[in-house]
Amino acid sequence: YHFISRAAPAMALSAGRGLGITYKYYDATFFADQGLFAENKYNDQISGFQGVSLSGRWLYKPLNNEFITLHVGASFRYSRINTGEVVNNVFKTNVELESNMQTYVDGTTEFLNAQVPWAKNTITVGPEVLVVTSNMFLRGEYIYKRLYKKRNDEALFENQLGGVWSWTTLASWQAGNPMRSSKFQGAYVEMGYLLCGEGYGYDDEYGLLRGSSERGDLEIVARYSYTDLNDINKGDFFLIGKQVFYPGGVVADYPAVSTSIGGGRLHAATIGVNYTFNQYVKVMGEYQYSNLKNVYFPLDKNFHQLQMRLMVSF
Fold it and tell me: What is the CA radius of gyration of the chain?
């Protein structure tokens, strides 16, 4: 670990741990890891089943020797969502994208939280780059996620007959309740400089920067991250009193349903200092400034964090 927490875009948009089967190949020049996984590894959905995902990560290392390592690569993930619940006799899927404020002390995820109903097929792609020398590293990643949706419009229309939309046809109900795919993105850049120590290392087996584990290692690190969980249609108006988006900027008693999602947009800058006492004990300290834009929290804009972490390995 070089930072106390993962970057917010990675927590919100990347896959976490998965249950499945993979095939991995690596040598000094190439790295390939691809597999088939259960989408919901805990199998705790109310209805449906776990779903399935296909994912892979591929790296090319044009430079990889005792002095410097450079890898460039990309990842890809396709997910079929089959986890959900039955609402009014209709099976409804939902994907929640969320992240804390890059701290594990406070698990609050309301500031960065996008609820995506009816999500069915999800694609996540992202390039990455890493440069490692004996006393410096620089790495970055961009993540793009698109969610394609599917719902049973005929059943939903029939189930609401007798309500405020009873006078409509199926076509007019669909026009008033549009559906489109949703897209989100994020990126981060991290760097570190080793003031004292034996030097950074690179792990060919996992395609990752190794941690500092030698006695007396002292490093300074910095990170900038950008997380965008907003997918708001141009011209839509958000009425804070009702917590609702109105399409076209028109506030009406029975408006067409907006497809906008206000999950929040966060810019965060972090600086830190890490010291390793020995291979078992390490202490980390960080300061972070974050700027938030979320329509649900218009007064919460600037965040300052100081945090420390004591790590003991045994």
Answer: 23
